[in-house]
Amino acid sequence: MNPWPFVIASYAVFFTSLALDALLPWLRRRRTLVQLEGRWRREQTRTHGNREDTR
Amino acid sequence: MNPLVKWFHRFGSPPTFYRWAGQALPWLRGAALLAGAVGLYFGLIVAPADYLQGESVRILYIHVPSAWMSLFIYLFVAANAFIALVWRIRISEVLSMAAAPVGAMFTAVTLATGSLWGRPTWGTYWQWDARLTSELVLLFLYLGVIALFHAIEDRRRAARAAGLLALVGVVNLPVIHYSVRWWSTLHQGESVKLFGESSMHASMLWPLLVMALATKLWFFASLASRARLALLEADSDKAWVRDTLQPRVTEAAPA
């Protein structure tokens, strides 16, 4: 039996898993930062007023 | 206060850990990738094929380090769960729960690569052998810990409940390790020994050890990344998150 397809499949599983392990928390962190940024901006607008609206 | 406990509390304070882990993260990832590249070069190109297994021995350079990591990470999860339950140190709860998905990933990789190695070597993808079955039980334990953690809304209570389950599951670790000695298994006995002479030739042993180092470094990088994220999500209302991130976010925003 030719072992190479099994070797290649194993390495594909390994690298895909590592890539997902790095990528998923990174994407979730980006989403959290965007949410936080939005929240802080809304709070800032409430506290100091929206310049464009007050003009 | 005991200096060690004092250090733990200081290091474990969310802003300190967040900053420290952020600084360590690129170095850990870089070192993991470098060690992985060296290990794979020697494992795939320099090391010879095995006289019995042929080229399928190349799978072992990822299968064995992944299997070691599956056990090591479980021990890490359980040790941190124990610290969190006894001393109520919050960072241990965070570390314990952040490590569990990485452990589950390495366990799934172990089972998948082992199965892909088994087909050309044993002639089957799967056998209900003691080593394989106990490793599968380990995957279920990881999934149980992760599921329990996400099933409870209060994050701290969730971490404590999941930590307790992780502690109960520790009983499976010696079963996995000694399964090849206690039962007559299809899975071969250990070739690499921590104490005593290994039965592997140095040309195959060294790439394996370098890959073990690479997976360990990868784990600590993933842990740093996931623990930072967990702290960020849990403390999003706290002042330290705002103090740490708001200047950066405001600077990055378009005028």
Question: What labels would you give this structure?
Answer:
heterodimer, A: 55 residues, mainly alpha, 89% helix, rod-shaped, B: 255 residues, globular
Brief overview:
With 55 residues, chain A is mainly alpha-helical. Chain A has helices at 4-48, 51-54. The longest helix of chain A has 45 residues, at 4-48.
How much of the polypeptide of chain B forms β-strand, as a percent range?
A: under 5%
Helix/strand order of chain A, N-terminal first: HH
Q: Measure the end-to-end span of chain A.
A: 78 Å
Structural class of chain B, by secondary structure, is mainly alpha
- What oligomerization state is this entry in? heterodimer
| Average residue pLDDT of chain A | 87
Largest beta-sheet characterization of chain A: none
- What's the count of strands of chain B? 0
Number of alpha- plus pi-helical segments of chain B: 9
Shape of chain B: globular
Give an overview of the whole structure.
The complex is a heterodimer of chains A (55) and B (255). With 55 residues, chain A is mainly alpha-helical. In chain A, 89% of the residues lie in helices and 0% in strands. Chain A contains 2 helices and no strands. Chain B is mainly α. Chain B has helices spanning 3-11, 14-46, 60-87, 90-122, 130-151, 155-168, 172-182, 202-234, 239-252. Chains A and B meet through helix 1 of A and helix 3, helix 4, helix 8 and helix 9 of B.
